[in-house]
Amino acid sequence: MAYFENINQIKFEGPTSNNPFSFKYYNPEEQVNGQSMQDLLRFSVAYWHTFTADGSDPFGAGTMQRSWNHLNGMDLAKARVEASFEFFEKLNAPYFCFHDVDVAPEADTLSETNKNLDIIVDLIKENLKSSKTKLLWNTANMFTHPRYVHGAATSNNADVFAYAAAKVKKGLEVAKELGSENYVFWGGREGYETLLNTNMKLEQDNLARFFHMAVDYAKEIGYDGQFLIEPKPKEPTKHQYDFDVATGLAFLQKYNLQDYFKFNIEANHATLAGHTFEHELRVARINGMLGSVDANQGDTLLGWDTDEFPTDLYSTTLAMYEILKNGGLGKGGLNFDAKVRRGSFEADDLFHSHIAGMDAFAIGLKVANRLLEDKVLEDFIDNRYASFTKGIGLEIIEGKTDFKKLEEYALGLAPIKNQSGRQERLKAIVNQYLIETLTKVTV
User: What does the pLDDT look like over 200-241, one tens digit per residue?
Assistant: First the structure.
């Protein structure tokens, strides 16, 4: 059965094309700095938003029109697998990601749930044999079911901790079986609502114990995928323990886990934490912890996780700047943890949204690469910090001075003169490069 029968394979046709089902800027084979766009960007489709989301929200029922909506249970799960691989092929998507309950329905018992998962994993495995698409990462959903009302690995209930461990054990086995390149931990309920009833130290200690057990089991079964933590500050809990990259890094270092994990950074989570997308990428990069990216954007007028498809070219440019400075994403990728708007309910909108996101990051890649080639920002930054390359500044860097020597030096200083940071000028330059890149591509 064809689920998207009116859609042909999406191809690159360039910015002058009027075909809405074509890439205008994302050319998978185009070489950028010696690598193809496809290899640099490593796009991934999020199974949950694309194939299981129904468009419901706290104020209204689902709106999504899908050809598999009439099915239920395992029949629905099997149809979604078939539809997903048709979608991957027509979009030419290199990767996809999923939570366990996205692909297989959760039953009354863990053993029944695992049986459902085994059936669907076998079906996915069979489809992978004839598909170019691979599994970027999988994870366990430990936030939706009522058992996780007080958390999973941080629950006050030891039975819940054990159940969550069993879920991750199964998830790691699935990851190995399907060749998943990463395994993600998102602590959707790993936090607290009020300190009045919370033993924070025990909860964080238990979370670390949980991670160490996961590391040990991955070694035991020979799974060599990359472990990723996805920071988020709030929603659903008021304060989550993986608030942002800096908080997560401090946690990993405290519990000697920093050698086993990197971060999967989501743009919308960054803004919820009061940061920019590029800030979180930068903090991870300079600490050697940038592993993968959930590519989306939030609505600045709304204070929750709207998970919109990324279309802000300024944001994608600064994101790709950090990713290129990182030397790419290694085993990671750009996963579209994004959903079509509730009013975009037709199946065709799934293609329009992914095309928009892929084109936006392709433009960001080209602009960021030009900025780096011309050393526009690097040269400015090097000059701005030039005082630390000689004299007293160099002595500070090399550890050859102390407070007494610095006081002696400061007492002999003439009035200090600073230089402008040229923030507005630099933003104008980025805009200039963006416009020039688009103009060249169009011509």
Answer: 999 999 999 999 999 999 999 999 999 999 999 998 888 999
409 has pLDDT over 60: yes
Phi, psi of 309 (to 5 degrees): -65, 140
205 catalytic residue (yes or no): no
Q: In degrees, to the nearest 5, what angle opens at C-alpha 398 toward C-alphas 392 and 404? A: 50
Rounded alpha-carbon distances, angstroms, from residue 312 to 232, 298, 299, 425: 21, 10, 11, 20
**How far apart are alpha carbons 7 and 181 in whole angstroms?**
29
- Pairing verdict, β 11-12 and 22-23: parallel
| Annotated active-site residue in 49, 70, 75, 102 | 102
Question: 43 forms bridges with which residues in the sheet?
Answer: 334
What gap in Å lies between CA 118 and CA 102, rounded to an integer? 13
115 Cβ contact partners less than 8 Å away, ≥ 6 residues apart: 107
83 closest CA partner among 347, 345, 357: 347
Name the DSSP letter for residue 237: S
- Catalytic residue among 39, 54, 57, 99, which? 99
Contact 128/178 with Cβ under 8 angstroms? yes
Q: Is 99 a catalytic residue?
A: yes
Entry pTM: 0.96
Cβ count within 10 A of residue 432: 12
pLDDT tens sequence across 306-341 = 999 999 999 999 999 999 999 999 999 999 999 999
Peptide bond between residue 15 and the one before it cis (omega within 30 degrees of 0): no
Q: H-helix or E-strand containing 228?
A: strand 226-229
Non-local (6+) Cβ contacts of 212 within 8 A are 255, 257
- 303-315 b/e (C-beta count within 10 Å ≥ 16 → b): eebbbbbbeebeb
